[in-house]
Amino acid sequence: MTEAAIHPAVQAWQTAEGDLLIGGVPLARLAQRVGQTPFFAYDRARISARVGELRRRLPDTLDLHFAVKANPMAALVCFLAPLVDGFDVASAGELAKALDAGMPARHIGFAGPGKTDRELRQAIAAGILVEAESAGEVTRIKSIAEDLGTAPRIALRINPDFHLKGSGMRMGGGPQQFGIDAEDVPDLIAAARAAGVVIEGFHIFAGSQNLSAETIAEVQAKTLDLALRLADRLAAPLRYLNLGGGFGIPYFPNDKPLDLAPIGDNLAEVVAKLATAQPEARAVLELGRYIVGEAGLYVTRVIDRKMSRGEVFLVTDGGLHHHLAASGNFGQVIRRNFPVAIDGRMNEAAQEKASVVGCLCTPLDLLADKASLPRAEIGDLVVIFQSGAYGLTASPTAFLGHPPPAEVLV
Amino acid sequence: MTEAAIHPAVQAWQTAEGDLLIGGVPLARLAQRVGQTPFFAYDRARISARVGELRRRLPDTLDLHFAVKANPMAALVCFLAPLVDGFDVASAGELAKALDAGMPARHIGFAGPGKTDRELRQAIAAGILVEAESAGEVTRIKSIAEDLGTAPRIALRINPDFHLKGSGMRMGGGPQQFGIDAEDVPDLIAAARAAGVVIEGFHIFAGSQNLSAETIAEVQAKTLDLALRLADRLAAPLRYLNLGGGFGIPYFPNDKPLDLAPIGDNLAEVVAKLATAQPEARAVLELGRYIVGEAGLYVTRVIDRKMSRGEVFLVTDGGLHHHLAASGNFGQVIRRNFPVAIDGRMNEAAQEKASVVGCLCTPLDLLADKASLPRAEIGDLVVIFQSGAYGLTASPTAFLGHPPPAEVLV
């Protein structure tokens, strides 16, 4: 078997006679329908299966939100709208997508450390929940809402006094640009109360891309404790608690898929305690990558096959301008290959080590470094797995003036 | 003085009473004229001064090309067209910009490891020089040119048997996706000759962002030797030799600006030897970053000023979605700050360590990590220097749905 086929993320996809299937369609046929390479393809059956799995494992009273930043493709956001309980957005641009998709404003939260006055005005006009990241932002929200003659909906984003160990990205604990330091929150609540500002609840996000169920469960329990302590200071009962997300997906050979069972058990306790202490509070889990990351493929065609000083290079029509994360240039400390395979040869054994490179004139444009693959020829489709989140959206599409990829929801 | 003011890249800019001037205009006034922050501003006087300096230091018979990929802003490409002798492009998109700017097709070269048939067709139809990266590409060029009924113009991109030590990016030597291994070129020339394909010359690019004049001079001498050896195999006299570029600019505190004098002296020898051995050959130096990198500023406004656990964070309306390189996420192994300053306070002493962060909801969005700065307030403009090359063009502008920056040529 190929290196790729060993990866559980690849084994999860159906094949027929060496062809990769997506939504029951052979990938080469899909490429004809799309009319171009490269493209990203997202599998709606896999997305809804993932949401279904989360629903089964997690307590019924927990709201499941999708973090639009993970994949803002309009059709995908529309597809997810009826499947999840709410959306989290990080800009006015994402807010527009969330509303366009039909998500009711009351189920949209907006976090982000640098909200402009214009964005705050849009958010307040829309009636969504604004997750304020500083005392200054609370003041700005109050002033803009007065100007609009509307009561704003405000939660506080908290920078906790703990962090999520082993996360791909640390977003809480220590000094941070995100949120209000937990120890400063009581004073801020008192000031807001004095100013007649109502705080609905809290958003506490400790980290992302974590594969340890134990760590995630521990942090969720700590998050609840912190929220309950802070809620005692509020003028009104707690109505909203965003527990963050942080559920990781396996990208690399030794990554183990996250075990949802212990997280679900722990969350059942968390929501039960919350219901006892703060019966009006709605608990929210905010997931982006975990919902869509494994449902997406990046597909690019081999334009040239070169030998250079004993090494094989597959030169493709794609590259880091479409998929920066796969090139290892987006927050990764050590570059590792995303799972990769050659369509049409899914049943062939690995025959060689080949590097998959993009069409850009820069050595950074490396999609797979010396991967074990069957022998690929010019015209073959190279598939990069685990590409459903932070793929196209996080890539420098204009770099070197090549055309953008297509995106399809299958 | 501030940490920023110590950096020679900052000292090179004029100020008046603490205000930074660009093209004689105070930056705050320019921001009003632009009508928004963030924006990139490029100083045409600095660009032409840099070209003038290169003209003075380099031999008259050497052609100076601009590598459009460094900054493809249309107005900037138009401004450079009459100043330089040619453009190098890396895609059909850049080719269109080069032609739109009025650069004659005969002075445009096209390199890139993954040229599509469509791009090759466009390039051949335009009559530009195609720098073929493999034997397969030569075959495709021949076939497309026959189909078009046009004689193609072809050079070979060579992967040399040496590299440019200490480069920011290594683009030659060892196994590479770029070019044809030097040792394989004689056979390829023989095959081309047999097939009636004319090879005009060679493109040999060993690396980029190098600050050692000695290393660059050494590689240029080696490049000439390699080209002359290979030229003996050509059916016709050598007509074109692209010596690459690789001239670096100082980004970080200990970086010393490149000393052009020894490079100029060495290039005088290189072109003299070339003129003797191959009198019809035009020698080309291809520079991108060196021409525009130091002429550009990224300007973003402070939206929030936060203290978190003893550290100061300046939250701005910009971020890595506009300027990925300044966040340290574009090819840098170790993250270091680009030179940074606060407009309006250029004459104030550093008072604090402050981190400049962007508006994105990700910890990667760090524009300056604990920089020594005067105390900045909400509304102040933060300036990131050395932002004229590989700034906006190499950034994931759509990430998180925020608006794009403006770009102005002043």
Spell out the blueprint of helices and strands.
Two copies of one chain form a homodimer.
Chain A lengths: L2 H4 L1 H4 L3 E2 L2 E4 L2 E2 H8 L4 E4 L1 H14 L4 E6 L6 H7 L5 E4 L2 H9 L7 E3 L6 H10 L2 E4 L2 H14 L4 E7 L9 E2 L9 E2 L3 H10 L4 E6 L2 E2 L4 H19 L8 E3 L17 H18 L4 E6 L1 H4 L3 E13 L2 E6 L23 E3 L9 E6 L8 E8 L7 E4 L21 E4 L1
Parallel strand pairs in A: 4-22, 5-6, 5-15, 6-7, 7-8, 8-9, 9-11, 9-12, 12-14, 14-15, 17-19
Antiparallel strand pairs in A: 1-2, 2-3, 4-16, 10-13, 16-17, 16-21, 18-21, 19-20
Helix pairs in contact in A: 7-8, 10-11
Protein architecture, described:
The structure is a homodimer of 410-residue chains. Chain A has 410 residues and is of the alpha/beta class. The first copy, chain A, has 2 domains: 8-43 and 294-409, Lyase, Ornithine Decarboxylase, Chain A, domain 1, CATH 2.40.37; 44-292, Alanine racemase (TIM Barrel). Helices cover 30% and strands 25% of the residues of chain A. Chain A is built from 12 helices and 22 strands. Chain A has helices at 3-6, 8-11, 27-34, 44-57, 74-80, 92-100, 117-126, 135-148, 185-194, 213-231, 260-277, 289-292; strands at 15-16, 19-22, 25-26, 39-42, 62-67, 86-89, 108-110, 129-132, 153-159, 169-170, 180-181, 199-204, 207-208, 240-242, 282-287, 296-308, 311-316, 340-342, 352-357, 366-373, 381-384, 406-409. In chain A, strands 4, 16, 17, 18, 19, 20, 21 and 22 form an 8-stranded mixed sheet that branches. In chain A, strands 5-6-7-8-9-12-14-15 form an 8-stranded parallel barrel, surrounded by 6 helices. In chain A, strands 1-2-3 form a 3-stranded antiparallel sheet. In chain A, β8 (129-132), α8 and β9 (153-159) form a beta-alpha-beta unit. In chain A, α7 (117-126) packs across α8. The model of chain A has no long low-confidence stretch (mean pLDDT 95). At the A-B interface, α6, β10, β16 and β17 of A face α6, β10, β16 and β17 of B.
